[in-house]
């Protein structure tokens, strides 16, 4: 299919403007704002139009906002296309009123819109076996989007499968998988919390039945536990009541025993004090306190320290003879030392750099060419054209005959495969609506039949035949092109060398290139040395200024000779350090003087305290009526006096406490009253213990009264709890769920879940068969895509990459490099990746157009991000592709325009768009 012309009736900035295109290559050049992107969009819109289906898609809204005319309500583009059969068709796309779009035979005037209707409007991509979306992904390459074809791999899956199978547009494994997945989603669903499909509903029902059964069993167990708890509480209440009565008897026994012990103690004390309270001692407390104070003071008197060494007066005289601490630095400041080290380092570096001055440069004339350009010319001169293989023409003809024979024999197998696929859907319906076992058997048998028909059909033989044909064609064209290109390159190289006045010899050119590289290296070394030398001179000046400033800050005024000034500063620091060392002794002597003064004062205080203690001790001895020759003897006599008085006080205190105890035991009564109370308590304790026989012994120190109160409280509380538990158990007995009914509901839910699970497993097995078939289709198309890439890959990449492979699932490309390692094309350099993916678009345009029509390529600034070498390679590729299919290149680069003006020859065309017109009313015409 060829695009002869496109007319913008009203589109974007253009009104009544027309572009005409050559049958092979058309280069459309225009500066910025000339409307290249608008023309690119207009070409696509004139061929494919816009969808008329209900609900406008976001990309359609974006296209409308960007490409509507700048003025007026009309929005229309037209195109004249010529099919490979010779028929010419006029396409009219009224984008503002999609109901009035049409496709008309330009020679006969017949409406042919019905042949290419797609979602309500004519779509010329249908003649290629594509649709408007896949045509946009493959044939319309927008600015800087050469590699974006991999992003649209999902939308091209059906076209890739149909191209591999050579079947109708409604018989792909992907569509069968999609329909089976829809049935699985409706009849099974996913096991997610928010799903309402049968699988999740069955699991939810099973969970609810299990919970109901568990709840019924739990309620029944709780009721039995409550009955047992009520019985236990009633028994515990009776036991606590008996325990309280026993504690009451034990308490009475303990009280009787306590009264008996109290009576025995009272009788003993009454016999010890028959005459009443004991007589009081004489009052001598003040004298006792005086004796105690005197003895304490005398025993704690301090020892008198012994004085040794120099006196405080001698130390003061030595301090007065010391010198004062000097002012100024005693050691060089760090800032001065660091500045001096930096200055010396800068001088050393400058001296070393002077010894490394490079030699003078020798001039070399390369005719204005670089070393790489000279080597490339030398390689071109030495290259030889490859020989032609005479047997390739015969091989190519045999491959064409074999492919036509295989295509005639594959029609009936495709019909049987379609019937098997229909049987899969029919079996799924039988499964869901009538009998799951018969439905599952039908689905499995038809799926296996479909897979076997796909595997055993002629697809593989056709794929191998197509691959052999493509390989033979690519080899034949590649050899012819290689010979032509080699001869042209040698001729152009000789003309170029002759014009520059250089020798037409490869060896001489390579020597000249080496001389240019050596001269450039010398020039660079001299520039590098000069830069470093200037930097070192500046560093010497900076460090010298910093050292001079540091010396002036330290007090050195004369800094003309920096080394001498630093030596003078260092000598002054050493002199001050020696004087400071002598003055440092003052602090030590001050400490010695302070210690000596404190020691002499302590001796005086100790002597005074000892004299006072002796005087008080002898005075206390005299008041006691005693005598002693000295303080030591007085201390002994006073100690004896204190011991005798303490013994008398202890005996008197014991008598007073015992008499007070007797009064407490009698409690204001008589001994006879206490005897009567004891007899009464013993009789009552005997009566209470008669119910239990021998009573247990109480724990020593236990509070029987508190235990009795606690036991009575526990008995009351337990009885109340037992009554409440009995009442609750009676109420719970009326509310316990029916356990057998819950077990029947659980069994029903389990059967439903098993049914849905069996259906899910059967569908999963069927989908696995279909996905294997889809994978087989991918394996059929992958060699065809790879063969198409090999046809151009070696020449485009300058024989750096020689082989390729393509994954049809995501259109990722791997190429075989010079190290025999496979590499991802997207991970290569940007220019190489763009070349490879542009090749992939060419191959896709050839393979996806399954109707026999050749798909044109419409390229918008695909070279804008390429360097000069890659750009030339891509342009050569575009010229080669245009020999087989129509290529339209829109560009804003003047470099591409100059190339086109020099290389594009009729019937190909070069179109130059006018610069932007500021007049809003002037029509835009190329």
Summarize this structure as a short list of keywords or feature phrases.
926 residues, alpha/beta, five-stranded antiparallel beta sheet, five-stranded parallel beta sheet, 24 helices, 15 strands, disordered C terminus
Short recap of the structure:
It is built from 24 helices and 15 strands. With 926 residues, the protein is of the alpha/beta class.
Describe the structure.
By secondary structure, this protein is α/β, with parallel strands linked by helices. Among the domains are: 208 residues, 3-Layer(aba) Sandwich (Rossmann fold), CATH 3.40.50; 89 residues, no CATH class. It is 63% helix and 8% strand. The chain has 24 helices and 15 strands. The strands form four sheets. It has a five-stranded antiparallel β-sheet, covered by helices on one side. A five-stranded parallel β-sheet has the order 9-13-14-3-15, sandwiched between helices. The C terminus is likely disordered.
